[in-house]
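_Full entry_
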Amino acid sequence: MSLRTRLLLTLAGIAVLLTLPAVYGITQHRRLAEIVSVTRNRHASASLALGQLQATLVELDRAERSYIATFDPDARVQIDSALAAAQTHLDSLTAAGYAEWTENLPLDSIRQETARILALIDADSAQMATARFEQVKPLFVTSANALDGVSEEILSRSEADLNRARDISQAASATTLLALLIALVFTILLGGWLTRTVFTPMHRLGEALTKVADGAHPAPPDLPYDRPDEIGDLARSFLWMSQRLQELDRMKAEFMSIATHELKTPINVISGYAELLDERLLGEITDKQEVAVASIREQTRTLSQLVNELLDVSRLEAGGLRLEIQAVPVRDLIDSVQRAFDVLCRQKGIDLEVDIALNVPDAIPADAIRLRDQVLGNLMSNAIKFTPEGGSIRVSVRRAPDNFIVIEVSDTGSGIPDDQRPHIFDKYYQVGEAARSTGAGLGLAIANDVVEAHGGRIEVESEVGKGTLFRVWLPARPEQIPAAAAAVEGVSGANG
């Protein structure tokens, strides 16, 4: 299944899950609208017709009384009009569905008795008309009672419809809420499926690319190389790129190793002849020639150091760095570093201070030469390089938890800008113009790799204008050193 298909299916599923509750809600809304319409049209019209019929019967009763008493022609007209209106309102009630309740309404009897009363009045029999009207009164009472029954039925039906509407509304709310919860659960499941099948592999690919950018070229084995979709294509492309980068790294390391080995021979020859000239073994030289020979010897030493650094870098990149682990006396190590750099500090007017805590073990398992020259030597060289005259450098050693010792090299130099600090351990990276004019940017990278090969780490703290602190963590026990990098010699007394 392609990535596009997965995304389309996920979006379609979410759309369906969100549409179903909406469709159900619309359906229930229509049912409620129908009930409201029935209540408004049928019950309201029935209530209106009932009220008008009640008022018409009252008006008919009053008009008959008036006509019997006064023989007023207007009252006669009102009687005829009231009878016609009463029939109209009765028909409206019947049409509204209340025929069974209007059957008991004696409107026909009232109409017949009213006709007899009018006939008696026309025959000048007013007394008989009055007596007849007394017989009609119970019909009006019966009509009023019948209309009260219709009113109660209208209220009963209205209440029943309202209850039904309320039940539908509650059921719709509960069902819609349940549907939304189900939709939410399925949406979460779809999101989890999409995350597991799309975003998680992409995240792993992103992490792998970051590691490649940091120099770790072997491709992780858990990437989805076998997937038949676009993510699989991307993973396979990444694998091919990683393999090509590994091959290029191997070729680069091989080239650097060959080149540096080839450079060492002419450098040694130049250095040897310069030493012969300096010692006058090839004859006397002038003062100017002596200065030139001294410059040649200094530059060949610098070039030889650079070649050695390039060799170390090629070994590190090829995974060929081996540590000669032995019990290294801590105080002897620090004393040798102090002696090596004390003269340089004095020449530059820098105060060098050394502090070794009492709880530091007598010896630690380490490669003494690499630790002294490539780690502490590089840190001291950088400290001297960036510390101005009148500044100070402090080397301290203390014991740390988890069987580690910490060696700190701090200075009062120019400091490292915040934007450059994350890159100081990158190969060929240099901080400031002074570093660019005196080095290749390999010292700290080699120091960091050597410390990590020991199973330790280097931390840095710095503030521009105030100085820099390098903190080297080293294991105090042999078993803490990675076996792949160590060729261990007698270190049984390394813990002290």
